[in-house]
Amino acid sequence: MSEASLKGRKVILHDMSLRDGMHAKKEQISIDEMVAIAQGLDHAGVPYVQVTHGAGVGGNSIQHGFAPHSNKDYISAVAAAVEKIKISVLLIPGLGTMKELEEAYEAGARSVHVATHCTEADTSPQHIAFAKNLGMDTSGFLMMAHLASPEKIAEQGKMMEDFGADTVYVTDSAGYMLPADVKAHISALRAVLKPETEIGFHGHHNLGMGVANSVTAIECGASRIDASAAGMGAGAGNTPTEVLAAVLDRMGAETGIDLFKLMDVAEDVVLPVMGQPVRVDRDSLTLGYAGVYSTFLFHAKRAAERFGVPARDVLVELGRKKMIGGQEDMIFDTAMTMAKERGLLKEAHELETA
Amino acid sequence: MAKIRCAIIGSGNIGTDLIYKIQRSPVLEAVWMVGIDPESEGLKRAADMGLKTTHEGVDGMLPFIEEDNIQIAFDATSAYVHAENSRKVNEKGVLMIDLTPAAIGPLCVPPVNLAKQAENAEMNVNMISCAGQATIPIVNAVAQVQGVEYAEIIASLSSKSIGAGTRANLDEFTFTTSNAIEKVGGAKKGKALCIINPADPPMIMRNTIYCLTEGEPDKKAITASILKMIGEVQKYVPGYKLVNGPDFEGNKVAVFMEVAGLGDYLPTYAGNLDIMTAAATRTAEMFADEMLAGTFQPKAKEIA
Asked: ipTM of this predicted complex?
């Protein structure tokens, strides 16, 4: 029945495997691997690929991990190797700066997601304006969107449109949203934004809802969808690009993608890079269930190992404390506090006098 | 006892909180509050608290500087207008304490380098940023023990405590703080990250400090140095507290701090406001002590 129900709808798929996928690889992807994946996506007709450290420009840090190469080096190498695909970057104000965005532009990036927490859009005006001045395709990216009401999302999205964003994204960073939530958020945005402003959706697969949520978003007016080849992304990964492309093809939407070529890239090029499988498991499911930022997964596992508190307990506590993307330091802090409460760790002054 | 008379420029969160801090000081007196919006809550509150006010910017106060004997001004506006504000009051012989990220004067973190500012008879001293005031003492405590190759700080601030000016100019905040981690903290390279968290009830200000030491960290000496430094900051910000750490992993030192405010203008979660206004007040007090003792007299800058 739903066959061909999106007939003629043009949808832009934006591949995240070389940015969100960096999280899944603990920021360790080589330049050769990046180039091979980007070329494969390019040949399959994917229109956009995001290339940066998982936390975006400025992301190299103790907080977010160090990649083996600078963002500039990754972007330059990919830009030199591809033909049609456009390169985008992520910029989170407070972490990345306009200076670093300009470096990315000079290296070949032509599109940017300017990301803020879903209620803090007013930290992005200078960055959105700067990107527009450079002539970049500019999206405002409202992260952890499940933590805001549809009205709040509409208000914040409108703000980003006023700053100059071409597209406003609903970003389900925790993979927590269900199709009804997506419908409410996207519809609220569509009602307030100018007709020429596009709407995007960025999903995570922690509850296995990536594809279903993306389809719902398109049905409600979204025309840009972030997805990741073979699902390589934080947590249980992003919406798998090849699966979504197949579903959209069945529904009659136009993505301009050669489905079989894309399947081959996912299977033959991305999967071998992925190493350990990105899947819904006990911990990534906890992210989606408790509404926790997907990137927290590996940090929580590491803190769990170090201080002897189960990762799931730490993740649930982080969800309760409403910690948001960028507060990775609070994972260790929370694990340490829980370890003290459980008699597994001593206070500093006790150590000093010991 | 005589007090040094002060003006506050900027009627936002920081400027308004400063009134309370100055009123508590034995050597400072808040006399003027300068704003640009007649409807601003800060100006109304200042008037209620007995300050003279103007909504016509610094120019609205300049004609009264001599007759009101203003000797110290605090600027809590924005980096973009600070230089002009500073020039105008310096010309009248008024010392400027800068709470914007403009950083045209020397950077000051009281327990690290306050004494030096007075020795040099500076006419403009910059307070960096709330994140800088909350983290640089710790970086410096580590750097006093051994070389710090790289220091990175993460400030988590509650959304309700961040005013419009800071929100619209996050890059300036980042650059000024990163630079001060090196110049004042003593790290070879510094990086500052800032996160604005909207949780309700609001989260208390948190700061994480990571230092990569040159060679294996001397755990005992570093722990002692950090605890001593925390005591120094607590003298003017009682809510400055160690939550976790120092944690040592290889050559990485991690320290997790919390800053609770006194709850003057905003509730106690806004420790970021307090650490900035308290540091600025402490800085002004030290200059005021010298002025009252006759050992430092600010001089009007020649108009070029």
From this structure: 0.92
Question: What are the backbone angles phi and psi of residue A239, rounded to the nearest 5°?
Answer: -55, 125
Query: CA A125, CA B138: separation in Å to the nearest integer?
Result: 32
Q: Which residue out of A23, A69, A185, A205 is catalytically annotated?
A: A23
In a domain, residue A5? The reply is no
CB-CB neighbors (< 8 A) of B223 in chain A = 348, 351-352
User: How far is A286 from chain B, CA to nearest CA, in Å?
Assistant: 20
A32 CB-near residues (< 8 Å, 6+ apart) = none
The contacts of residue B81 (CB under 8 Å, 6+ apart) are none
- Choose the mutation target among A64, A102, A123 for the interface with B, i.e. most B CBs under 10 Å: A123
Q: How far is A104 from chain B (nearest CA, A)?
A: 16
> Domains in chain B, start-ordered, CATH in brackets?
4-127+276-293 (3.40.50.720), 130-270 (3.30.360.10)
Distance CA A55, CA A234 (A): 11
Identify all chain B residues contacting A333, using CB atoms and an 8 Å cutoff: 206, 208, 243-244, 256
The pLDDT of residue B303 is above 60: no
Same domain, yes or no, for A105 and A150?
yes
* C-beta neighbour count of A149 within 10 angstroms: 13
The model carries a pTM of 0.93
Q: Do A304 and A269 share a structural domain?
A: no
- Whole-angstrom Cα distance, residue B243 to residue B261? 16
Q: Which residue of A has its CA nearest to B171?
A: A97
Q: Which of B153, B162, B193, B251 to mutate to test the interface with A (most CBs of A within 10 A)?
A: B193
Neighbouring CB atoms inside 10 A of B171's CB total 21
Decide if A279 is inside a domain: no
Record: contact A98-B171, CB cut-off 8 A: yes
Is B211 a residue of the active site? no
How far does chain B reach from its first CA to its final CA, in angstroms? 37
Q: Does residue A326 sit at the B interface (CB-CB below 8 Å)?
A: yes
- Residue by residue, DSSP assigns A207-247 as TS-HHHHHHHHHHTT--EEEEBGGG-SSTT-B-BHHHHHHH
Distance set, CA A24 to CA A19, A238, A286 (Å): 9, 10, 16
User: What pLDDT tens digit does each residue of chain A (354 aa) get?
Assistant: 456 799 999 999 999 999 999 999 999 999 999 999 999 999 999 999 999 999 999 999 999 999 999 999 999 999 999 999 999 999 999 999 999 999 999 999 999 999 999 999 999 999 999 999 999 999 999 999 999 999 999 999 999 999 999 999 999 999 999 999 999 999 999 999 999 999 999 999 999 999 999 999 999 999 999 999 999 999 999 999 999 999 999 999 999 999 999 999 999 999 999 988 889 998 899 999 988 988 888 899 999 999 999 999 999 999 898 899 899 999 999 999 999 999 998 877 676 554
